[in-house]
Amino acid sequence: MSSGSKIPTISRRSFLKGSLAAAGLAAGAGTAKAALTPGDNHLATLIDISRCVGCGECVMACQEANQSEYPRPEKPFPKMYPPRVKVADWSDKQDVDDRLTPYNWLFIQSATVTLDGEELELTMPRRCMHCINPPCVKLCPWGSAKQLENGITRIDSEICLGGSKCKKVCPWDIPQRQTGVGLYLDLLPNFAGNGVMYKCHRCYARVADGELPACIEACPEDVQTIGPRTEIVAAAHKLAKEMNGYIYGETENGGTNTIYVSPVPFEKLREAIETGPGQPDFQPVADQMGQANNLVAALALAPIAGVAAAVGKFVAATKPKQPEE
Amino acid sequence: MSSPSPVARIFKARYFYRFLIFLCALTGFGQMPIYKRYYMADIPGFSWLADYYATRFVHYVGAALLLGLLAYTLADYLLRRREIGAPSWSALARGALLAVIVISGLFFLAKNLAGAYYPPAAIIAGNLIHLSAVMGLLALSLYCLLFKKGWMRPS
Known about the structure:
Order of helices and strands of chain B: HHHHH
Structural class of chain B: mainly alpha
Radius of gyration of chain B: 18 Å
Structural class of chain A: alpha+beta
Order of helices and strands of chain A: HHEHEEHEEHEEHHEHEEHHH
Helix content of chain B: 55-70%
CATH class of chain A: Alpha Beta
Oligomer: heterodimer
């Protein structure tokens, strides 16, 4: 396995110097942005699975960096109607770190696979993929899920009502709910809402300040690299070519800003990882937002067709009738 | 002359309009997580209401047809207004609400495209405007139905 293949992609220093400047420029320059393909002005991360040793430093760094944002629910929870509405309470299980929870936005997934007759232990950090066109953001009925112009998606815990639609529409079921916290308590807590959804926001505040996300900074193995998406995608292809590996995240769900490179096919990885609630898969994902977005042309043509039909009817009605022979 | 067949009747503009308003309202409310919670999606044949992608797709299809119908109706009226007569106050009010619904709906259509970034405050405001206009239209339409208020001013 060519696990040691180091790719001189984007160093931490060059990220700070170049990537943020690029993201900032893209954010400010509306005219330049028009020529870009969606996602080109985003910051993306490359996760080299072959380098991860599963030490968990990234998980701990994430928890330390984001602890102040973790939910502090009020108990007892309001009784919810109808009774089928379930409470999601992780406040007594804050130490759980083998899956995503409202208190754990990043976890290490592991797999034992066989490659070229050799048994291989692979570990990989899993968190939000930060899609280019994120369904969680676009379909949030309330606008509490947001996408920043640098591609980071985040959920505003001040206004999230915890309806969990973001989780339902997320191909990887990433956001996790905590009941008993948030705006819904001030509205109709018994009948609408159910807490707040939490997920990785890729340390948006740190990134805005020119710092690295905590998980990337803490990694002793440089598993993750961050930079402009176009450069990250190029680096991922170079790395995959060198290790004879495979890419996930470049095209899934129309493209994400988290690109995994694995020495084994993802189909094989899928068979070996534990998946389930809070433990995302590496399944193929079609562009979830694309289906309805393809109807935009129909929406644009419909009024034209309507006007044309009315004009046609008017012309036909006003046309002098030919005398019958 | 025999009366038109049910198939022909349903394609009459007013029935088509009512059907599209119902369809768009049904799928529009389905963008909120309420149908599963409140058992609507448990009704046989309505499980698709709990699928946000399905309701969104149907909402777009309904919106395209409604846009076409509204454009047809407006153009038809403008071309034949002398012949048709003046609209009633309820028609003007319904038209204004429909305009708000269409404009705010187009805002969401653009927002959902990749590469579109809108301020969260604008999204929340858009949501409230779209939803309020729909509620207003439904209430006004119900009033017009109950009290037999037509679209045209009585001559």
